[in-house]
Write a structure and sequence with these properties.
The protein is mostly helical. The protein has 5 helices and no strands. This protein is one of the chains of the nonenzymatic membrane component (F0) of mitochondrial ATPase.
Length: 109
């Protein structure tokens, strides 16, 4: 078996491995989101302990901070699925039916 055939056979496996590693790296953002949410509610507890009369207003701000942090966290699985589904190997792209390049005839007006 020559080197060229071996390289052609190993390319799809390398692409699959790279896709899996990229998807795993994209989900690391979930850990950052968890830390961010913890910081939001930790700050809420400290703020309410300092000034209990502002608890209602501070809770609204905390929920807003939670929602924004969670919205950023939703990008992690989106990127992981994008990495896994968009990048395809050469063998996978040949399995699909080729696009038809026939001209579409229109009816005369």
């Amino acid at each position: 078996m020559n080197d060229k055939a071996r390289d052609e056979n190993s390319q799809p496996e390398m692409l699959e491995g790279a896709k899996s590693m990229g998807a795993g790296a994209a989900t690391i953002a979930s850990a950052g989101a968890a830390v961010g949410i913890g910081n939001v509610f930790s700050s809420l507890i400290h703020s309410v302990a300092r000034n209990p009369s502002l608890a209602k207003q501070l809770f609204g701000y905390a929920i807003l901070g939670f929602a924004l942090t969670e919205a950023i966290a939703s990008f992690a699985p989106m990127m992981a699925f994008l990495i896994l589904s968009v990048f395809r190997s050469k063998k996978e792209s040949f399995k699909q039916a080729p696009l038809s390049h026939n001209k579409v005839e229109t009816a005369p007006c």
